[in-house]
């Protein structure tokens, strides 16, 4: 598309030059006295800088300039937007991958714990005991029971 865009720039500048080479502006100057002036106008138009130093004066030149502007948007500005959205999607994909990578150790630990619980013969086995949640302790105080008295005989 870049090749077609540059060909469009060259041909449009040439057509504007042909339409405007004899046109005189309000101050009595010829705006597009050479093809280089028309090419300068084309580059400034394509890059959307728009200095305003070269402006078509005739209706034919303005028509060519309008068509060229629409053409330039489709061949120069549109690919830039596509590239920008592609970069944004790449950043979003990296963020998702980073989030996924953070979840891997937790999932692996869960799978290992479940396997240890399943594979252990003794439920109190030390292989998985550290992963079992202990119930909360009761906060009631137990009074010590009195010691039994020895009977004297």
In a few lines, what is going on in this structure?
The protein has 153 residues and is mainly alpha-helical. Helices cover 60% and strands 0% of the residues. The termini are far apart.
Walk me through this protein's architecture.
The chain crosses the membrane at residues 63-89. It is a multi-pass membrane protein. Residues 9-84 form the Potassium channel domain. It contains three helices and no strands. With 153 residues, it is mostly helical. The chain has a domain at 2-89: Helix Hairpins, CATH 1.10.287. The radius of gyration is 41 Å and the shape is rod-shaped. The N and C termini lie far apart (116 Å). The relative contact order is 0.09. The mean pLDDT is 82.
Which structural traits does this protein have?
60% helix, 153 residues, rod-shaped, Helix Hairpins
- Report on the biggest sheet: none
The CATH class of the domain at 2-89 turns out to be Mainly Alpha
> Are there runs of 5+ residues with pLDDT below 50, and where?
none
The helix/strand series, from N terminus to C terminus, equals: HHH
Distance between the termini: 116 Å
Q: Look up the CATH topology of the domain at 2-89.
A: Helix Hairpins
Classify the oligomer.
Answer: single chain
Report strand %.
Answer: under 5%
Number of separate strands? 0
Overall helicity = 55-70%
Protein name: Potassium voltage-gated channel subfamily Q member 1
Main location: membrane
Keywords: Membrane, Transmembrane, Transmembrane helix
GO molecular function: voltage-gated potassium channel activity
């Amino acid at each position: 598309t870049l090749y077609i865009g540059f060909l469009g720039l060259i041909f449009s500048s040439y057509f504007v030059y042909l339409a405007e080479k004899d046109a005189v502006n309000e101050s009595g100057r010829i705006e597009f006295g050479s093809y280089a002036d028309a090419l300068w106008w084309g580059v400034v138009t394509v890059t959307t800088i728009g200095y305003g130093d070269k402006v078509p004066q005739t209706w034919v030149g303005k028509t060519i300039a309008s068509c060229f502007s629409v053409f330039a948007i489709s061949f120069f500005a549109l690919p830039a937007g596509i590239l920008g959205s592609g970069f944004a999607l790449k950043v979003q994909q990296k963020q998702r991958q980073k989030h996924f990578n953070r979840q891997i150790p937790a999932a692996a630990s869960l799978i290992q714990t479940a396997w240890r619980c399943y594979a252990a013969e003794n439920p109190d086995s030390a292989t998985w005991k550290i992963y079992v949640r202990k119930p909360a302790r009761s906060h009631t105080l137990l009074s010590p029971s009195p010691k039994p008295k020895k009977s004297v005989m």
